[in-house]
TrEMBL record:
Protein's name in the database: SIR2-like domain-containing protein
Pfam families recorded: SIR2_2, STALD
InterPro entries per UniProt: DHS-like_NAD/FAD-binding_dom, ThsA_STALD
Stretches assigned to the NAD(+) hydrolase ThsA Sir2/TIR-associating SLOG domain: 266-482
Length: 487
């Protein structure tokens, strides 16, 4: 793959997902990586029964059609699908990452249930739409939608498998087409695991070509190049490789920019880079300060947290918050103020809140529940800003252990750690722990500011004035911008 194609993919597709206009098309290669058979492998026994070699049959839908004609129905083909696709296989990392990405629309021609199982494993709602009649059903609030264009293994009476099914797609399953065309027009779609030998992909590309004859919208396709190990002879490899290169170039006719990999195992690394770029736009403001403390310190920490929240909103980033005492409400106030200036219409997308349930007076918090919420906040964020983090114990300020727990959880999750040490409390302790540490402070693997940046942010004198707080906010977002450029 060219570096230009890779950079465009990493930048533009991450932006599309972040802006809520990214979609995904999952091809057969993803299922094959989980251990499911290719089309030719799936129909190999049927080919033997028909006394043909499935490897030499390029129209595999025709092979299924011939079986249906010979057997007087589709039961034989459906039983093969049930036996080969029905059993659960380990969920590949590619699908696990897809389930975590902020994607709301997923298209596939695969029959298996990998995507459904991946979403269920993280308790994320998903509405599979495997039949045109499902399009009329009410969508679960907040659920992603999985459009199984060619049906599902759990509804084998309604799958696309034979020549007849492809030729009659428009009349039998044509309800998918306006929606698919709308997504191709208004969204950036990533095609994963597609191959020119897959009849499903040829069908989907024909739909794109039919919809956009002159200037198709541009999308991305991660494609696996043929490898020598796939073939018995050099000649077979050379012939298939030549076909692949021509096909990859031909994808431009459909508006697809090819991002080439040599093995499906490389796809998770690409998607992790996308995930990291998206996470860098999600900023967790962690911290607390005793409300009953009062005084200038409380006012200054409140003002700083509010300014940082406002800057998160004004720069188009997302706020991740557990609504901690004083710091959480202040950062939320600034963030909401920034969004209100633009109408606040994207609040549901840009605010990721997991408020901590507060116990009644005299009762203890549910530590297990709070720990789960902290892990969820860390999973959602790419950067954690620590402000304050203190509690009162017999009229004396102590480091808030809850904020220190958030630091440990964020560190373990690979979140970039950004303490404003001058605010005191846990933030100062975290800054001291990071200063001079072996944690990387530059490049793609950076997880903390440089020592010079930490020292600047640890100056308590800056917190006391509006000009000083402005400098702290400027340094914080200079660091955030630098990290964003490095991902």
């Amino acid at each position: 793959m060219t570096k230009a194609a890779l950079n465009r993919f990493l930048t533009e597709y991450a932006d599309a997902l972040n802006d809520g206009v990214g979609a995904i098309f999952v091809g057969a290669g993803v299922s094959m990586a989980a251990g499911y058979p290719s089309w030719s492998e799936l129909l190999s026994d049927i080919a033997v029964e028909l006394e043909v070699d499935s490897k030499n049959v390029h129209d595999l839908a025709a092979l299924a059609q011939w079986s249906i004609l010979e057997n007087g129905g589709a039961s034989r083909v459906r039983n093969v699908i049930r036996g080969e696709i029905g059993p659960d296989k380990p969920i590949p990392e590619t699908v696990e990452i897809i389930s975590r990405l902020p994607v709301r629309h997923i298209w596939t021609t695969n029959y298996d249930r990998l995507i459904e199982r991946a979403f269920a494993s993280i308790s994320r709602p998903l509405n599979p739409i495997s039949s045109p009649s499902d399009l009329a059903l009410r969508v679960t609030p907040g659920a992603a939608l999985l459009y199984k264009m060619h049906g599902s293994v759990d509804r084998l009476d309604d799958v696309v498998i034979s020549t007849d099914d492809y030729e009659l797609f428009r009349s039998k399953r044509g309800q998918y087409l306006p929606l698919f065309q709308a997504h191709l027009t208004s969204m950036s779609m990533l095609f994963i695991g597609i191959s020119f030998t897959d009849p499903n992909v040829r069908h989907v590309l024909s739909l794109i070509r039919e919809s956009f004859t002159d200037a198709p919208p541009e999308h991305f396709a991660i494609v696996r190049a043929p490898q020598k190990a796939d073939f018995a002879t050099e000649g077979e490899f050379a012939a298939r490789n030549a076909q692949h290169k021509l096909w990859a170039k031909d994808l431009k006719r459909y508006g697809l920019l090819a991002v080439e990999v040599s093995d499906y195992a490389e796809i998770p690394a690409l998607l992790r880079q996308i995930e990291k770029r998206i996470a860098a736009r999600r900023i967790w403001v962690s911290g607390s300060w005793p409300l009953e403390r009062g005084g200038s310190d409380s006012a200054n920490i409140h003002a700083l947290a509010e300014d940082i929240g406002r800057q998160i909103g004004e720069t188009g980033r997302h706020l991740v918050t557990g609504a901690g005492l004083l710091v959480g409400s202040a950062s939320l106030s600034g963030f909401l103020g920034a969004l209100r200036q633009g109408g606040g219409w994207d609040l549901d997308r840009r605010l990721i809140a997991r408020p901590f349930p507060q116990p009644l007076a005299g009762a203890q918090p549910n530590n297990e529940e709070w720990a789960a919420l902290r892990h969820e906040l860390a999973r959602q964020a790419g950067i954690a800003i620590f402000i304050g983090g203190a509690k009162l114990a017999v009229d004396k300020l102590e480091v808030a252990q809850g904020v220190m727990q958030e630091y440990e959880i964020a560190k373990d999750a690979g979140v970039f750690l950004l303490p404003v040490g001058g605010a005191g409390g846990a933030a100062q302790k975290i800054s001291d722990l990071l200063l001079g540490s072996e944690f990387s402070s530059s490049g793609q693997n950076a997880v903390r500011p440089t020592d010079k940046e930490l020292q600047t942010l640890s100056d308590p004198g800056l917190l006391a004035s509006k000009e000083g707080r402005h400098k702290l906010v400027s340094v914080v977002f200079e660091i955030i911008d630098r990290i964003a450029r490095a991902t």
